[in-house]
Design brief:
The structure is a single chain. The chain has two domains: about 190 residues, no CATH class; about 70 residues, no CATH class. Helix content is about 25%, strand content about 30%. α1 links the parallel β3 and β4. The protein is globular, with a radius of gyration of 19 Å. The two termini are about 30 Å apart.
Amino acid sequence: MRYYLRRNTLFIRGSFQAVSSGARGGIGPAATLVLHAVQIGEDTEGVLENEIAREGLPKDFFGLPVGVPIANLCILQYDFVTVFIAASLDGGITIAACSNEGMTDSGLIGAVMTMTEAKALVLMRSGYDLSGTPADVVIVASEGEPIHESGGPLTEPGRRMREAVIHGVPEALKRTSGIEKRDAPSFFIFSRYGGEHWVEWRPGNCAYYPCHFQGQRCDFCYCPFYPCGDVTLGQQVVSSSKDSMVWNCADCVLLHEPEISDYLTKHPEASLRELKALKKREE
C-alpha cells in the first residue's frame, strides 16, 4: 500500500479487496482508494472519476468525499493498519482504513461496524449528542491472502482500527475547528517506547534529528516499503517486546538521501528496485 497527495486529493494505491459506502460503493477489488476534498454542489462521483483520469489510473477504484481541506486529514499508523480520517460535524466524517494483512469479506464488514461503534463512542465522550452525521462515509480495505476472518474489536485488525478511530476523530475535529493548525496532513504513529501511546510525528520538531547523517531528508521517516524484506537494507531480528521476529531497517539510509527522497516524492509509485538503481548511478 502506497499513498500520496495531488492537489486536494489523496490517492491510496495497492491491490485491495475493499468495502465502501461512498461513491461507486460496494464490495470488491480495487487498485485505488481516493479521498477528495469536494466543494458544495459538486458531483462527487464525477469529480472522483476526473481525478482518477487525470492521474492516468485504472478505473477500478473506491472513492470518498472529504468535507474539509485535505490539510486537515489525520493519518494514523498502527503496525500493519493505516487509517485516514477527516472530520467535520457540518461536512461529515470520512474514514478509510487499510490493512496490509488480508481480511475476508465478512472481516471487512465487521471492521466497518467496529469503526462505526468507535466513532459513536468518541463523539459521545467528547460531549456531542450524536453518533455521527448524515454525510459520514467509510472504506475498509486489505491486501494479501485473507488471514483475518473477523474485524471485530477483539481481533488484531479490528482492535488497531478501533484505537486509531478513537484517537484520530478528536484530532481531526481539532484541525477542522482551528484548535490545531497544520499546513499538511498530520501523521500519527502508535509507539511502544515508554509505554503504548500515540505520537504525532512532525519533521520540524523531531527530537532525534539527525538520526542518520547531517542534511538527511526526513519526508519518509516511516518507510512506505516497510517491511521490504531486502537483506541489503535490513534484516529479521527478535522483537524486544515479544518473542517473535520483526523486520529491522534502522541502518538503512536509502530514503533519507535527498536525491532519492526528491525522486520518490515526484514519482510516488517508483519501485524499491528503481530507487536502488538510482542510488547506484549517483555513487
